[in-house]
Amino acid sequence: MRILIFTCFMLLNIYNTNKVHDAISATFNVIKRGHVLMLEIDFDEENFIKFGESESLRVTKEDFSKYLHKTTSWEFDGKKIRPQVLQIKSSEHHTKVICFLSKNTENIKSVKVKNEFLLNVEAHSNIVKLDINNTFKDYRLHKERREIKVDYN
């Protein structure tokens, strides 16, 4: 009986390990670092290579920059900002990209983000985290909700 229970338990664990990436998402963290506004992006490298129009088997600055600018737009206080990719770090299946947004603007009054990054991946979501003006807010964007506008008044 113990062997049967143990075998069933092991089969369930093997079945569940195939679904490690059920919650498919990318996170976009907008943060102030000293006197600059930065964007840190975390995502699944495999999804980017398959669906992000990559021309390489690795995430390159050039491919990532093109895709990021094509699928996202960033506006702070009515001024459009184009993220500048500074660094890409890959670890196992995940990639972290660090981007420069702008010199720090004190008391940001509004943020508008449009994000369609990897929305061609089934059940994919993008989490936008805004850590500015001593306030933290986060939003989930997906196929039905691709844009947010946040007022800090």
Structural notes for this entry:
The chain has 153 residues and is an alpha+beta fold. It has a single domain, classed as Immunoglobulin-like. The chain is 22% helix and 46% strand. The protein has 3 helices and 10 strands. The chain has helices spanning 2-17, 45-51, 61-71; strands spanning 25-33, 36-44, 72-76, 79-81, 84-91, 94-103, 110-115, 125-132, 135-141, 147-151. The strands form 2 sheets. A 6-stranded mixed beta sheet has the order 5-6-2-1-8-9. A hairpin with a 2-residue loop joins strand 1 (25-33) and strand 2 (36-44).
Short description:
With about 150 residues, the protein is of the alpha+beta class.
- N/C terminus separation: 65 Å
Q: What sort of overall outline do the alpha carbons produce when their principal axes are compared?
A: globular
Protein structure class: alpha+beta
Structural domain tally: 1
Q: Please give the CATH architecture.
A: Sandwich
Largest sheet: 6 strands, mixed
> Can you tell me the CATH topology?
Immunoglobulin-like
Rg over C-alpha atoms, rounded to the nearest angstrom: 19 Å
Strand proportion: over 45%
Q: SSE string, helix = H, strand = E?
A: HEEHHEEEEEEEE
**Low-confidence sequence ranges:** 14-21
Provide keyphrases for this structure.
about 20% helix; alpha+beta; about 150 residues
